[in-house]
Give the backbone structure.
Amino acid sequence: MSPTRRRFLAAAPLAGAALAADTRDERPALLGGAKAHPEPFPSWPVLDQTEERAMLDTLRSGKWYRGNGTHVARFEEAYAQLTGAKKCLAVANGTSALYTSMQAMGIEPGDEVIVPPYTFVATINAVLRQYALPVFVDTDPETFQMDARKLEAAITPRTRAIVPVHLGGNVCDLDAMLAIAARHSVPVLEDACQAHLAEWRGRKAGTFGKAGCFSFQASKNLNSGEGGAILTSDEDLHERCFAFHNNGSGTRPVGGFTYKATGCNLRMTEFQAALLMAQMSRIEAQAKTRTENGAYLTSMLKEIPGVAPARMYDGCTRNAYHLYMLRYDKREFAGLSRAVFLKALAAEGIPASGGYTPLNTQPFLKSALGSRGYARIFSATEMAAWEERNRCPANDRLCDEAVWFVQTMLLAPRTSMEQIAGAIRKIRKHAGELAGA
């Protein structure tokens, strides 16, 4: 027997085993197949000796607060330069950034603030802290962003601010929103808490409105556990923000225990700022990886019936991909519920969630607006009209269809994107079996 034939016969059982494995692997893991993505996705945060040195140096300096340290001021300068903003104010967290900005912009009890119903609750809580009325504008399901086509109808003489949220790192239709805001002389406060390095027409998100707010909470693409920042090109607004976050004492204090305004203590610590400076050394490379993997994943998923990745508006020149968001249509998956679809993905080694629920219908909002404070400001007739104005049917549907992957998944190798798409394809192929399992 020739050496070539012997090698062929020896390899034949291995080839048969591989073929059998391939056949087995085509079944979803929930039905006994192999996981599509057997390896874990990257952990978060990413850190090394850079962060360790930053923490130890700050600890040993004995200068732990911005009043006697240098890290917060250095971070503010670096983040302003990174984003192209004129001014940056570092604060305790993203909620503090929103709250401080609204206070400095003069939002008061009885005012109305336009917000999306599809966002993290902090966007709404900041409005409620001012005893203002959140007015919800329905979502564009294709992009997961506030629908600019429905914005103008929500503006009234009481409207004091428009707060678009660049949800998931995608960017709102800023051209349309800024034009409408200018036409009605209403300032825009960008909630860019999830949109680090996102861009609209080549310019960083968070630098278009009166101010832009960011979060550095543990899940965010730039992370210090907790932390936040306000960007603005308005020096007077920056001064008011600084005073409010510093118990009423501004960048030019009047001396002693004398204060120019009311305020809170919402300052960032030196430890947070030192961590951020270390984390910023990786942010551009990480953003590039997310952008490339996000685009590659979209190119595959858009070919699968029943899966619709979030669309970007033409002006969005960079999606930060804090979240990779898509809509799931169970009609294309033999009626398989989203809950079982998510369970099937998890079995494949691909964690996913169903995202937000409609904020405009949650109990916390009814409780807040039914409080004594709100009852003193808004009449029962006004509140009944508010309920009618704040129906968001498109958002209700989106909340039933949304599927999210978190940003760390997009830091995985390119092959992981192929495995995500492969998992969804085989779940769809066997959806009927999964629905009956």
